[in-house]
Structure formats: C-alpha cells, structure tokens
C-alpha cells in the first residue's frame, strides 16, 4: 500500500468528528437518531476500508462524494443556521475535497517526495 498521509489524516479526522457527533446527539436526544447515525458511520467505514484496501479510485470518489453531498444536504437542514451546523457543512465539503485531491495536495507540499526518499 502506498503512503497517503493526507488521506489517512482526513479519514482519522472524519472518524473522530463522526464519533463525537454520535456522542453529542445521543446525549441531547437519546437513542432516537442513533440508528441513522450508526448507519452513516457504517457506510463511511465500508467506503474507508474500500479506499484503503483497493487501488481503484471508485471508493475514493464515493467517499469524497458522500462528504460533499452531506455538506450540500446540510445547507437545507434546520440546524444549518446555527454555528455548529455551518461548521459541519463546511467540514464535510472541505474534507470531501481533501479526500479526493489528496495526491495533488501531497505533491504540492512535498510529502510524497520526502517519504519516497526515506523508504
């Protein structure tokens, strides 16, 4: 598996944010939204495993698309007027772009060249 530190960092950040959201929503409304949140987390985990275990870019495209579409759908939600809602919308859109363009970002900041010389 090739080194993809920006992609790995984006995935870790995504999982941390998702788990924090699950805990916060559970504490606020109880188990009412837990099934849908676990469903979202499961879909993300399936896509993440696909991305990390495959050389195909289809999983990468779907994971990035999932975040971008989630951000766009968040624009029409009731919570989008609140600061946390706006932050989450921005997070989804930005993380989707970072996931899709992780190779370009790594090349621009020279991460791949550094890792390639040390291996």
From TrEMBL:
<feature type="transmembrane region" description="Helical">
    <location>
        <begin position="83"/>
        <end position="102"/>
    </location>
</feature>
<feature type="transmembrane region" description="Helical">
    <location>
        <begin position="38"/>
        <end position="63"/>
    </location>
</feature>
<keyword id="KW-0812">Transmembrane</keyword>
<keyword id="KW-0472">Membrane</keyword>
<keyword id="KW-1133">Transmembrane helix</keyword>
<feature type="transmembrane region" description="Helical">
    <location>
        <begin position="6"/>
        <end position="26"/>
    </location>
</feature>
<protein>
    <recommendedName>
        <fullName>Cytochrome b561 domain-containing protein</fullName>
    </recommendedName>
</protein>
């Amino acid at each position: 598996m090739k080194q993809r530190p920006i992609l790995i960092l984006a995935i870790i950040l995504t999982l941390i944010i998702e788990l924090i959201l699950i805990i916060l929503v559970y504490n606020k409304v109880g188990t009412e939204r837990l099934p849908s949140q676990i469903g979202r987390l499961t879909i993300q985990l399936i896509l993440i495993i696909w991305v990390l275990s495959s050389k195909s870019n289809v999983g990468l495209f779907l994971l990035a698309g999932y975040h971008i579409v989630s951000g766009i759908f968040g624009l029409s939600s009731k919570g989008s007027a609140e600061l946390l809602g706006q932050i989450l919308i921005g997070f989804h859109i930005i993380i989707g772009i970072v996931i899709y363009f992780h190779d370009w970002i790594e090349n621009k900041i020279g991460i791949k060249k550094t890792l390639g010389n040390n291996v």
